[in-house]
């Protein structure tokens, strides 16, 4: 049956939605209350028979567009659509349906529509309007629940109710049913994962298979190897953002329409989304669903499947934490949303207009729908960026009320209402120049109503470089703060931000060469340091978090292959990471950096020489690509590469670097080199923390933390903590020369007196035969003793 015969407009339903909108705007106590009600009706929704659509369309009022020029556009392929194909030209049929409007909102309803599900595709939709010159314009659905071709293409109507009804972790949520919404609390520790580099498959489905394999091995008590060990021992998994990101600035769109043929068919050129991104370059539109790049099947069900794999993990369920980015939009967001969403430019792209009640309500509704995929927790990126302009005081203010609204949202999964655990990254007064000194990292903790709201702690923020000599004593004042008030902080020095910043440090600084023989070894050990981990897991309060790419000793950086205009500049800024992450052997591996090799950079030294010139020329020419190319062509002896540089060559090199680095950063490339002594120690350390969850609390009056004095050229931390039924003593050599032989249990530390201590954890290379007595500690070595 053709689309025209199958689908019919239901104007009674559309006008009913418009009337509900009118009533809400008329009777609600505030405009925000009204828009909260309206937001629940927005987007494409399907109840099994009727499909309804709601859009916020102030641009139609701006342009004075009459009702007769506004339609709901429905597009449907003539046959089944294979979302796993890289490229296809598909004939579509299309119809336009009438709409009902009230002020800045537009509604439509239709019967006979196909809603997508796990096994079949659905109809695509958007709003379209005609201007006085008979030109057509499209309004996309920012609240779409399926975007197979990205945030800049029509959305797919999706059967969300069926997706939720078939989830495999319903029993997990049903345990929390009660008269009031269940409130999830903090986990003991967290593993942070970037989906595209976490497995060879690079998809949510591939990551789900990894956890299902682990679950089966754990359930059957099978031997585990280093690849297993880096994933085990965590209470929670936090995914870097899984929302749709920016798209390629140049080249084919993922959805391109050819002119209508003579027989009335519309042929659409479809490209499977293939962007690479670290996750934070978002456009806001589409935040309620999943980035199609991460979906092996093209079905958003994959995120629910992953949640179920965590929630059904044997022994102890694992929490899923979603990382949401609502503090800014990339400039591409201007093409996906109307201008009323934005409050002006910032260093990332665009500020959002949180004070507009419609925008505020839509953003919160996006969050509600996203977390309903089954997340137990939410991490809010860049909370210090949620600001509004106070015209009375003529200054920007932090929108703490909005942050409170975020953590107040009640979710519903499997018929059970709950409120997730919340973590905020907030470094205010950043970007003020003295932010590292001025930030308390407690601004949100102290304003929120829940006592279990967390923030990223001071050693977790981006500008921490634990491989520079003097780092640990220079952070002593922050460490003291962590000990006394860090119970609601995320701790740990290795995450997506710190590891990236580490690759941007000038290698000529005072680097701790005791961490390794090469810069690559130094960086890897700095962010997977057993002594730092003992400090984080055995001494510090709060919730420890590790980054998979760090514990796997894989690589990491700013990964984004969409840029055309500024791509060369971005790569020039990232070029220094070559010195930290890529040695000659790694570059020579046949599968590594194949695109750059094809462009003429056959060896690492070839690329390194080019990268010595590029950043300097970007600066001196103020990023004049034509001038840069001419200067590169004048270098003697000539640079490796294409032979004669053009602007196009520079852009191709930049794209090749990003695509090659994305492949190089994949964890699957590094697991064969993992050392079982390190991965097994880290797993045992995480299990120790889970068995002593009381360590999350701040240090009490009986506890002790200090460094050995005199320093004598090394920094050695000692920590005694007294728990409900046991005592813990840790000693960690953080940096510097080796110690003299000494007995850690003989140190004059309050609480250490007496017998009964057992050495339960020893960092590599300390052998298991060490049970106490004299020892020489060297950089990155540590011990954990327990009594009771």
Automatic annotation (TrEMBL):
Q: Which Gene3D superfamilies match?
A: Glycosidases
Record keyword Hydrolase present:
yes
Query: What does the record give under GO molecular function?
Result: hydrolase activity
Keyword list (alphabetical) reads:
Hydrolase
Q: Which SUPFAM superfamilies match?
A: (Trans)glycosidases
Carries keyword Hydrolase? yes
Indicate what this protein is called per its UniProt record.
Putative glycoside hydrolase-like family 5 (GHL5) protein
Q: Whose protein is this, by species?
A: Palleronia aestuarii
